Model the fold of this input.
Amino acid sequence: VIAADGTVLPADMVVVGIGILAHDELARAAGLACDNGVVVDEFAQTSDPLICAAGDVTNHPNAVLGTRLRLESVGNAISQGQTAARTMMGKKAAYGEVPWFWSDQYDLKLQIAGLRHPGDAMVVRGNPANRKFSVVYLRDGRIAAIDTIANLKDFMPAKKLIAEHRALDPEKVANPDIPLAETVVTG
Amino acid sequence: MATLHVTDRAGKEHTLTADTDTSVMEALRDHDMPIMAACGGCCACATCHVYVDGEWAGKVKPPEADEIELVSTSEYYKEGASRLSCQIQFTPELDGLRVTLAPED
Done:
């Protein structure tokens, strides 16, 4: 790979991650507020409350994460779509789905819940050599995210614990024989 | 085509006529039954959870290890009845199958 400044980087394989630009032209043309996507509130309403938007294109608040973000995932598109539908039906409920993702990498099922930050503490659960393990990310002692690799049993419990901002005992988390739900710090 | 009997979460019964070259999840989804089936049928999300009625439990092909591992972590797991409907191929032998939609996690 030859970079613009002439730097030569020898590589066997190049993975290109170029991100996504939200297609918000229609919303802009309609005069709706846009900022890294179509800006919506927790009820999927745009700056014109009679117009809803949902999915990858929205810059939305997430009550569980406590922040605004734009998220490219099927789970978000479906759940936020439900939020928009509820709003249109007059049954408003704030959006707060834990982000989640999946991928099949050859014979391995990869499932991810939550969004990790670079500073999170990593706890490996199980032996990676067995090709079946999880990595739990703790932020200030509370579970913020999980990667499960061919370890489906950790996925749904983790998603629930992330939504509840549960503090976990790292020593127990590191023991794959203890169900994740039983690693919660009590008292 | 074959018949699929579905009890929804409100207890209402539906009789569907569905293709037999699809999964039970696809048959439910294509008939607007309220299942999310977010992952599209690759056994990754457990949002197509159903209970197979007792008389049919023995006739449906048993679950693979991955499916058991995932569905058994549902709050609404019922041993012997819980299945991910995306993992059940709706074959002609299952004509008349009865399932109940499990509550959503």
The radius of gyration of chain A is 20 Å. DSSP finds four helices and eight strands in chain A. Chain A has a mean pLDDT of 95. The beta strands of chain A are 38-39, 58-62, 67-69, 100-105, 108-114, 121-125, 133-139, 142-149.
